[in-house]
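Database export, one record per block. Field names are fixed; values are copied verbatim from the stored entry.
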Amino acid sequence: MAMKSMLLRRCSAGAECLDYSWETSVSVPFTQFPSARNGGIVSRRARLRERKWRRPMDLRNELDLRRAEAGPVYLDLIEAAAAELDRVAMPRSCKQKSDVAPDFALLDPAGELVALSAILRRGPAVLSFFRGEWCPFCKAELNALLNAQPEMARMGATLLLISPEPPSRELVGDVARLGTQIALLRDPMLGVALQYGLVYFVPEILQQFYLEQGFDLSNELSTGSWLLPLPADFIVGGDGTIELSYVDTDFTRRLDPRIIVEELERFQPP
């Protein structure tokens, strides 16, 4: 499940916050999201093999399926929360096309530091910020990105998947099998997301809904708060300039990776 937020509460964490252990990545505690079947929040053990990373249906169809599972009540609240974010002009506070991408260094599952500046010396980078595997819309986009990654790599781009939450062993393994032009990075205190203007505070309208369903998101997130990153995708050119910026306050809408691949084609020599 995912959320929207109304106020950008600034946290003091910096991108250098690297004090965390990947040992917690053994499992995802559970997946919770409102279900069209009963209108309430369904709590399921998040079996790491549930909805395996597979060649997906079209991302648009996959997202439509997740919306149907969420149900109209939850979707109306998501839309209202997104409107709140739009009213405070949050999308304009995010990094835009032609901005210089802030450099950062985060740990991968092997404990190695991955720096954006080092990646850019090899070619363009695709940055994809997501909340975590507990979010069904994030899982749909992740699946599509993993399947599009070989095309990105063929064009010299490295895909960086960035989340504040620890990943499952399955996701770690699937990313590792895709080779060296992809990295799974954890931003535990949202320091990098903050640099890109993506951090928001879940609005009260959604907080109240979750709490009424017995789901206290702040107890489940590693930050211990109602802070989340907006899902976002960026293409950063070798010179550090952002060539594509996609941020949407409605977290049920995602950028189709095919658009990223098409944009990367512009970097190819004639």
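Remark 1: The radius of gyration is 17 Å.
Remark 2: The chain has one domain: 22-267.
End of record.
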